[in-house]
Amino acid sequence: MHSACSNCSQQFAFMRMATPDLDTPKLLNQLKGYTSIIAGHVAGVAQGGIAYIELARPHRHNSFHEELWIEFPNALQELDAHPDTRVIVITGQGKSFCAGIDVAHLQRSFAAMAMAAAPATAAATAAATAPSATADTAPTGALPGACPGAQRAVMRKNIMALQDAFSQLERCRSPAIAAVHGRCIGGGVDLITACDLRICSEEATFCVKEVDLAIAADLGTLQRLPYIVGHGIAMDLALTARTVGAAEAHRIGLVSSVVPTVKGASTGSTSSGSSSNGRCAVIAAALQLAAAIASKPQLAAQGTKRVLLHSRDYPLVAGGLDYVATWNSAQMISNDLIRALGDAGRAGPRAGVGAGAGAGGGGVSVVAGRDIGSREEERGESGRPPASASGIGKDRVDDGDGISNTGTVRASLPRPRL
Asked: In which pathway does it act (predicted)?
């Protein structure tokens, strides 16, 4: 009996899973159990490593409700923890990228907050006399006997939980790319400003809408947007709530590129609405950008993201320099670095690696080819005879004691002095 119930439950969950549309790329391993998003790794990419998240509430313009607030950060954690993930692409189904927070969800949240802040007797009375909270139930004020301070404490806790869902984007090791089409409003702007890169289709629009709703944006836009577009422009967008088109978004730096619409592209029509041609184009461009990033050494890409975010949050130059020194001292020595230095050495002098890989390289200074070493030999300053005709000793390695020794180039920690 228990097994049968479990099977029924699994089948029901499968039936409720979000459905891809014509513009959704083929996924190798769509994550199970998600009803409001489509997530997995993109198939058909040469180097792999591109994770994909698609908001799948096109009938509500991908606005965030109870399930989506839970599923979005969970999917991010699941994908980022996967060893194959190098980049995460985020987009939305239908005509819009994201219309922010679902109004019905806000109404239910306010009603629940009032109930949670009310004393037990008042809550019991309200539960017995008031209809259950639905999408049509709007808050009408505090319940009798409710403590205003308790209400505010519950509201603060709720706001911070929603903030955390978008902050998960910054906690991900992998860089996140927002591929925006159609409208991006309110909470949608909160989402994309937490991403590391943003691109959009040419018909995309953006609006920091909260001031028109009598609130201050509280899920990250006011904190992150000034670092992206500058303080003055962020103030303009937040106070006027005006709509910004793709061209202006690119001009002010909100997006790094605008993708032209591809004529004759699929519209990804679904039973609940259809997307614009721009969605197909911007997804393709985002996957191309993701592939370029995924081809880079993984630890270097992850470290670059982390150091840039740290420097933004702790903007003193001295602190940023100290942080990157600490980061590289822990992460720089890797197989990727050894391969990169080997490739540069084989390419010859001035091929991209100069006098070493920086102070974080553990004291190893690598000079490609005969760039510096040969000049020392010509001046007779090396104090050592020329290398043998075998060519093995043409590269010079600085052991950290100021003496250049001939030998093969190796990316390693300093050798012990004998």
From this structure: Lipid metabolism; fatty acid beta-oxidation
Asked about 101 being catalytic, the answer comes back as yes
**Type of residue found at 304:** T
pLDDT per position as a tens digit, 205-224: 999 999 998 889 999 999 99
Domains in the chain, CATH or no CATH each: 19-102+166-296 (3.90.226.10), 103-160 (no CATH), 332-406 (no CATH)
Q: How many Cβ atoms sit within 10 Å of the Cβ of residue 193?
A: 26
Q: Which of these ranges, 50-54, 151-155, 370-374, has the smallest mean pLDDT?
A: 370-374
Residue 406 DSSP SS3 = strand
The catalytic position among 49, 92, 187, 303 is 187
pLDDT at 334: 84
187 is catalytic: yes
Query: Taking a C-beta distance cutoff of 8 angstroms, is the pair 41, 26 a contact?
Result: no
* Those residues with Cβ within 8 angstroms of residue 49's Cβ, 6 or more apart along the chain or in another chain: 41, 84, 85, 86, 87, 294, 298
392 is catalytic: no
Burial of 60 (0-12, 13-18, 19+ CB in 10 A): buried
Q: 38, 88, 90, 101: which is the annotated catalytic residue?
A: 101
- Which region, left, alpha or beta, applies to residue 107 given φ > 0 means left and ψ of -120 to 50 means alpha? alpha
Choose the catalytic residue: 67, 78, 218, 371. Answer: 218
Spatial separation of the C-alpha atoms in residues 301 and 321, rounded to whole Å: 18
- Residue given tokens 């949240």 in the structure block: 109
DSSP assignment, residue 59? G
Of 190, 202, 203, 395, the catalytic one is 190
Inter-CA distances, 333 with 328, 340, 360, 411, 413, Å? 8, 11, 9, 8, 8
Q: Is residue 67 among the annotated active site residues?
A: no
* DSSP codes of every residue in 179-220: EE-SEEETHHHHHHHTSSEEEEETT-EEE--GGGGTS---SS
pTM of structure: 0.72
Distance from C-alpha of 223 to C-alpha of 238, rounded to nearest angstrom: 11
Signed CA dihedral, 295, 200, 177, 44: sign only: negative
From the number of C-beta atoms within 10 Å of its C-beta (0-12, 13-18, 19+), residue 388 rates as exposed
Whether 218 is catalytic: yes
